[in-house]
Known about the structure:
Blueprint: H1 13-85, E1 96-100, E2 106-115, H2 122-134, H3 140-152, H4 163-176, H5 179-190, E3 195-206, E4 212-214
Antiparallel strand pairs: 1-2, 2-3, 3-4
Helix pairs in contact: 2-5, 4-5
Amino acid sequence: MNENKTTTVEMTAEEQAQFAAFKREQEKKAAEAKAQAEREQYRDLVDEEIERCIPILLAISGDIKNSKAQVMDNFKTILEMKSELFKTKVKDDQRSHTFTNSEGNKRITIGVYVTDGYRDTVEDGIAIVKEYISSLANDEKTEALVNMVFRLLARDAKGTLKASRIVQLRKVAQDTGDERFLEGVRIIEESYQPEVSKQFIRAEVKNENGMWKPIPLGMTES
Length: 222
């Protein structure tokens, strides 16, 4: 019958210190090896899950794309019928169209997102406006006008003029009645060249409280 035997080893203080240091080093290596194995296990788990999920998400994306194209195509036909039935012309620059069912509890809006853009000639118009503003006498009344005009000509983070502010600028120019100022604004307006970024579909239904609630159509919606 085998028995566990305890052996006593005599060591000097120096040998004890060396042994303790050896044990600490071994424990450190074991902890590092364990941590590395856990990191590798984590990476493997991430890789496996990505490989499983990407095909699912690609399929969802394809379904959304195809469904969106089908809805757009269906409503293109409806827009053409609307034009014929009511003898109206569908404007090319109309950015969205909303359709509501007869019960008034479901509606779909289709359209395009449009970003403000300008041709190079916009800089000529801005220069004329700034030239006029700089020519004004420097008193309290004109200082307020100057500050207002420069706020309206301020560009956004992408360096683009906001079309809504140019509408306000025209009102300011009309109030002054100065032809040079109005000429600058006209050049800016004529330089306007909006860009269509992408199409969108928005679907909504009324809840029990009569409030319109959107139907989630994106991955970030719930």
